[in-house]
TrEMBL record:
Keywords: Glycosidase, Hydrolase. GO terms for biological process: carbohydrate metabolic process; glycoprotein catabolic process. GO terms for molecular function: beta-mannosidase activity. The keyword Hydrolase applies. Signal peptide: none annotated. This is Glycosyl hydrolases family 2, TIM barrel domain.
């Protein structure tokens, strides 16, 4: 499906996928942006940062032989970058997890054969008209050299929706029993 859409690069967002994906990407010549699984905020302890760094080293050891991986990324939307968190979390602190992000990025940088992106910034996310900005912002050029996220959540197709929402609760109300 991605080949048919002429997609040549994808981001493995905030997780590590199964080995089959990396093997297939290698075979097909697909480029992968591989995130380390850090999303938003975590315990701010040195112990946690050290454990995360060890896991980052293990991730690069396990998957570093895959030529499809062209970029390692360390932390998606760390608290000090994602100021939207102050509105969602009452205990938000703007400086939390800086050491964690740096620790993971330092490990990822040891692989000199790939680009290392210390963190994925909200400034790289193209959410205009959904989470931030206005719909008309799509007419302006992006402020970043890379767009790390775009789009928005959406409902599934109607067939799938009907399997998860009882017919009586669907809108518009209908007398259709199918």
């Amino acid at each position: 499906m991605m080949q048919q859409a002429n997609i040549n690069a994808i981001r493995i967002h905030a997780h590590v996928s199964g080995r089959a994906l990396y093997d297939l990407a290698d075979e097909m010549g697909m480029l992968l942006w591989q995130d380390f699984p850090l999303q938003w905020g975590y315990d701010n302890s040195t112990t946690f940062a050290q454990e995360a760094a060890e896991q980052a080293a293990e991730m690069t050891r396990q998957f570093g032989s895959h030529p499809a991986i062209v970029l390692w990324s360390g932390h998606n939307e760390p608290p000090w970058d994602a100021t939207w968190m102050q509105y969602r979390y009452s205990d938000w602190q703007p400086d939390v997890n800086r050491f964690l992000t740096a620790s993971v990025a330092n490990v990822l940088r040891q692989d000199r054969s790939r680009i290392t992106h210390a963190y994925s910034s909200t400034a790289e996310h193209y959410w205009q008209g959904w989470y931030s900005g206005e719909k008309s912002d799509h007419l302006k050029p992006a402020n970043s050299s890379i767009i790390s996220e775009f789009g928005a959540q959406a409902l599934p197709d109607l067939v799938t929706l009907k399997t998860i929402i009882p017919l009586a609760d669907l809108w518009p109300k209908t007398t259709d029993k199918k």
